[in-house]
Input
Amino acid sequence: MAQARLGEDGRYRGDLPCRWCATLIDQGGRRTPRLYCRMFHRWKNYGSWVAALVGGLF
Output
């Protein structure tokens, strides 16, 4: 699995997998790492978390 590394200048270099679909995302010198390849994947993750929370209450 690829891994992004934090450089001396405080920027991430390399690839990280998307937390939803595991597609590698090039970080391209960002200061904060991208965790999702698409905004839709971020919303799907949030929605599944909310559904689990609500489902756990009932």
Observations:
- The radius of gyration is 15 Å.
- The beta strands are 5-6, 12-13, 15-17, 24-26.
- The mean pLDDT is 91.
- Residues 5-57 form one domain.
